[in-house]
Amino acid sequence: MAGQTNVKERTPAVQAALAAANLAAQATTAYERPDLAGRVQAATQRLLDPSFNVLVVGEFKQGKSSLINSLLNAPVCPVDDDIATSAPTMVRYADEPTASVVFESPESDEDSEPPRQEIPIDQLLRYVTDSTNPANEQRVKLVEAGIPRRLLSSGLVLVDTPGVGGLGSAHATTTIAALPMADAVVFVSDASQEFSMPEIEFLNTAKSMCPNIVCVLTKIDFYPEWRRILELDRSHLSRLAIDSAIIPVSSTVRMYALQNEDRELNAESGFPDLVKYLENDIVADAEGLTIKHVASDLLSVTTQLESQFDTERVALDDPEKAAQVVNQLTDAKERADRLRGMAAKWQQTLNDGIQDLIADVDHDFRARIRITSQQADEAIEESDPAETWAEFEPWLYRRTAEDVVHNYQFLQARAGQVGESVAVHFADEGQALAMRLEVEDPSQLLATISTEAKADMKVTGKGERAQLAFRGTYGGMLPVMVMGGMALTPLGIGMIVMPAAAIFGLFSGRKALKDEKERQLMMRRNQAKNAHRKYTDEVCFIVNRDSKATLRRVQRQLRDYYTDRAEELHRSTSETLVKAQEAAKSDEMTRQRRLRDVQAELERITSLKTKVLALAPALGTGS
Q: Are residues 184 and 85 in the same domain?
């Protein structure tokens, strides 16, 4: 199930965009421009099959799955006190209930399409829980479910993230990595207590990666003090400078209200406020951005069609300018021909830009990991890993995940700059081109890292310390007893040796115990450093390999996109040149007849262009 099927409800803005796209498709067919028709078809598909991803995240057993089930009034996510979600579940719109499992690609062919298996929707439990799929032994990448729900009909996709281990575990790194690609985050925390430290750290990380965060306080029916917890959580958000609402809800009350069709009780559950937020703040914003992108493509198509007829109109309207127009078009055709060649300057710009970017991305990530490793070493040197490892390990996972995400954000931003530098070569031809790069989020990349920062922090027990102290004491006493006894016994005062030996032995035992503690502490610190370096080295290796593969895909995207644009430009200039040459050779009667036809076509295209600009007025001002 690659996408939605037959989304039912469309907003007036989407309907207007679809109407404009339909007119553009008719125009490209009427003017025999299949090259432009492909762009219109792709734009139409984005409108017909929208996808606005909302991640539902939170600590283990905070009510994430129950929240989704109550929101949709459907048991799509497994809920049980002993069940932990081990794989993400994506819930989107479908006419009939459907489900499929997407497995990880084989290691030998990581660039291939991941295997997909259709399953009955009631079999989801077998693939997404830690009890039925321990340690993800089935190599499940994600599970997709489709159900007919009005809330999902506009393109909203809810993603139930894994809850195994909580926000401080290695599993949380995949959630962090997916944040930049999400349209919004629903952060779930129950009313049993205020935000915990891992929750605060996660929110602080998330605010820089996803612009839309809404917090949901669950289980308010179970905890009478939920209002006090709500105020405490709000104070935490204020301190973190996170502009996010907190919506208190009760999944239990919601389900009871739906079963009994009780509107007042449903309002008390808090879910109507959450639905309103998702529809008005998330879907509407993401939908507006999609329409703007579609309008940009349609504007490019209509501009090419308009230019073709407008040039012919000038040649027909003023025969004296016809020769000048033909000369200008001949030069334009030659430039378009140069853009099509393998030696075109834009090709060189693209190749050089990607090669430079590969080096820059690698340097950026190594610099980030180097800082993380230095901070890890400092933290280890300032503490005993045996006491701090439980906090250090999740910090390392989270910090490394942040480094990976920021590196991929750097990659995407710089790749966009490469695309802009390539577009400059087309700007001389009046082509306002905007390439939207598709860079996958690194969440699945982090999920493939099998190495963990594990270290055996052995601490000497009381019995071992006692034996060590005894050996040190005895070892210190023995030389004194032997040497002192030999020297003093002939003098008749050998008994003085025993107290002196005991005192010396105590000091020796204490020093031996202290030295052993320091030795073991140093050993634990070295183990901790080796463990975190082993993990970061593995991350560096995988990220470096994947970023190079990602940039190769980006290069192919840019190459194919601008190759198509060069072909479109060549065809437009070629056909316009032919029309201008025909106009220059035509007699007065033929020119006037053709001029009326061209003006009529221009009126139709202008009308279409007006409709397109109405979708995104900022495009008309160049914004």
A: yes
Sheet hosting strand 89-93, strand order edge to edge: 116-119, 98-103, 140-147, 89-93, 156-160, 52-58, 184-190, 213-218, 246-248
In the three-class reduction of DSSP (H, G, I as helix; E, B as strand; rest coil), residue 32 is classed as: coil
622 inside domain: no
Let me know whether 261 and 347 are in one domain.
no
Q: Residue 547's pLDDT is what?
A: 85
Measured CA angle at 418 (ends 412, 338), to 5 deg = 145
Treating both helix axes as pointing N-terminal to C-terminal, what angle do 319-340 and 284-317 enclose, rounded to 10 degrees?
130
Residue 231 domain-assigned?
Answer: yes
Tens of pLDDT, residue by residue over 92-119, are 999 899 999 888 766 555 556 778 889 9
Residue 110's domain is classified under what CATH number?
Answer: 3.40.50.300
DSSP 404-440: HHHHHHHHHHHHHHHHHHHHHHHHTTT----------
Residue 136 lies in a domain: yes
Q: Looking at residue 110, what DSSP letter applies?
A: T
**Backbone CA torsion sign across 45, 46, 48, 53:** positive
Task: Tell me what pLDDT residue 169 has.
Answer: 57
* Chosen domain end from 268, 285, 311: 268
Same domain, residue pair 251 and 398: no
Residue among 229, 171, 241, 220 nearest 195 (CA)? 229
On whether both 234 and 361 belong to a single domain, the answer is: no
Domain encompassing residue 377: 343-459+514-584
Residue ranges of E strands in 83-164: 89-93, 98-103, 116-119, 140-147, 156-160
Are the C-beta atoms of residues 322 and 584 closer than 8 Å to each other? Answer: yes
pLDDT of res. 513: 57
**pLDDT less than 70: residues of the chain:** 1-9, 80-86, 105-112, 130-131, 133-137, 163-174, 177, 318-338, 341-343, 427-516, 583-584, 586-587, 618-623
Helix (H) or strand (E) holding 500: helix 497-585
Of 43, 270, 240, 76, nearest to 157 (Cα)?
Answer: 76
Radius of gyration (C-alpha) of the chain in whole angstroms: 34
| Pairing mode of beta strands 156-160, 98-103 | unpaired
How does DSSP classify residue 151? G
Q: Same domain, yes or no, for 354 and 261?
A: no
Q: How far apart, in whole angstroms, are the C-alpha atoms of residue 186 and residue 184?
A: 7
Domain stop point among 550, 567, 584: 584
**DSSP H or E segment with residue 331:** helix 319-340
Q: Is the domain of 125 the same as that of 224?
A: yes
* Number of domains within the chain: 2
Cα(234)–Cα(244) distance, integer angstroms: 9
Residue 469 lies in a domain: no
Calculate the alpha carbon distances from 148 to 71, 161, 191 in Å. 13, 21, 31
Q: What is the enclosing helix (H) or strand (E) of 248?
A: strand 246-248
Predicted local confidence at residue 107, as pLDDT: 59
Q: What is the pLDDT of residue 366?
A: 92
Q: How many CA atoms lie within 13 A of 206 on its CB side?
A: 32
Distance of CA 369 to the CA centre of its chain: 19
Same domain, 141 and 249: yes
Specify whether 437 is located in the same domain as 543.
yes
